[in-house]
Amino acid sequence: MSTSHHEPAAAPADHQARERDAQRNAVVELMRNAPVAEELAERFAAAGHRLYLVGGSVRDALLGRLGTDLDFTTDARPEQVRVLLDEWAETVWDTGIQFGTLGAYRHGTTVEITTFRADTYDRVTRNPEVAFGDTIEGDLLRRDFTVNAMAIELPKRAFVDLHGGMADLVARRLDTPATPQESFADDPLRMLRAARFVSQLGFTPAPRVVDAMREMAGEIRRITPERVQTELSKLLCGRHPREGVELLVETGLAEHVLPELPAMKLEIDEHHQHKDVYRHSLVVLDQAIDLERAADPDGEPDLVLRLAALLHDIGKPATRRFEPGGGVSFHHHEVVGAKMTRKRLRALRYSKDVINDVSGLVYLHLRFHGYGEGQWTDSAVRRYVNDAGHLLSRLHKLVRADCTTRNRRKAAALQRSYDDLEARIARIAEEEDLARVRPDLDGNEIMRLLGVDPGPVVGKAWKHLKDVRLDRGPMDHDEAVAELFRWAREQGIEVPEGR
Description:
Layout: H1 13-33, H2 35-46, E1 51-54, H3 56-62, E2 69-74, H4 78-86, E3 91-93, E4 101-106, E5 109-115, E6 120-121, E7 128-129, H5 136-141, E8 150-154, E9 158-161, H6 165-170, E10 173-174, H7 180-186, H8 189-201, E11 204-205, H9 207-216, H10 225-236, H11 241-251, H12 254-257, H13 277-295, H14 303-311, H15 316-319, E12 321-322, E13 328-329, H16 333-347, H17 352-364, H18 378-388, H19 392-401, H20 408-432, H21 443-450, H22 456-472, H23 477-490
Helix pairs in contact: 1-2, 1-3, 7-9, 8-10, 8-11, 13-14, 13-19, 14-17, 16-17, 18-20
GO molecular function, one term: metal ion binding
Keywords: Magnesium, Metal-binding, Nucleotide-binding, Nucleotidyltransferase, Transferase, tRNA processing
Protein name: Poly(A) polymerase
């Protein structure tokens, strides 16, 4: 079966052969990695129902990356699906039953089974008027992209491709089963999903998809910030996030979901030379990801680092000043940028921890500059470590990634300076245990020595002793006590005689 709403050109013979091979491989991959699918299909067939592996599960099987989460569709109604699952699965849940979906877990595999859908949309919200369908054809037509609109009928193992999804997959092309305008009008979130799939899969959107995204970008305002945040996070954690970000900016979607990004496209003329801040930020994102992967090739993508790399210079447009003689300055753009980052991430409903960490990195990313002049004392190094706290390893990556100069000598000098700083941090940390910098006296001893009760005086004394600790390094007990009494006298606090 291979008709198509977007009428791709006839595939050459080698493409057809690749498609057939991919279909066979998908079925083999499915049966090898998901024997549960065969068990489930036999149960449904015995009860007189059809069952299809569908959507992203088929796409991932074709790409050789099938996971342990499988999506199915069936002509059975939810109540019938529940009966079939109850006697078979280790666990069953029905949180999506209003949309016709039940979930189950068996032998390490999670399955979601949804009754054929033939939804309609009011095109005001993205919430469909759920209607159950009777055919696989109607179910596949409502799906977002052709590469997600293929199915494998089980247990027959028959491949179903009604919209040229296989041809698009082989060509690494992202297109829609219906027209993109119809698809995006039904659910504008699909425009963000297009950018996300560009990042995750490395596919190229069809020209008509890009045109529709550009025409309909404003429709994304129908989508809740939480949904936007989820897609943006998945995009940034993909294999090719730069391409996804560029698609958001090119189509105008970024104007609505992350307007600070296109705002970094500052006009530059021959009299006021400075880097294109937007392009620079994309390079920093690429370089931060390279450093992230080099440090931990098998690790999970670091959303905080990637957000910080993308947003580290968003304060520049607001702080740009043209100086006499053609220079340009961006004084305190890290301070302004940290505030802007905090505001945008709050609007996107990110968690408090993510907001604090990303804005903290934006605030700290310039602190290193000036170190290369050799003016940093051990005290300054301690403060750098103390202020970065748990963000230190990410800050190392961000600062290194922020070096995008084409001047090889300058770039090498910057990297050598940061190598030297990291070596000093390691040396001082080994000597002083920087990870646990604390005052040389704790709160209880401060209260005992000063004869005060818990309150603001104790907190102020503790902070002062910590600052002294950062400046001077560790003190012995007598030195710390003497410093406490010296500070107390300055504050007008009575101290014991002879002290």
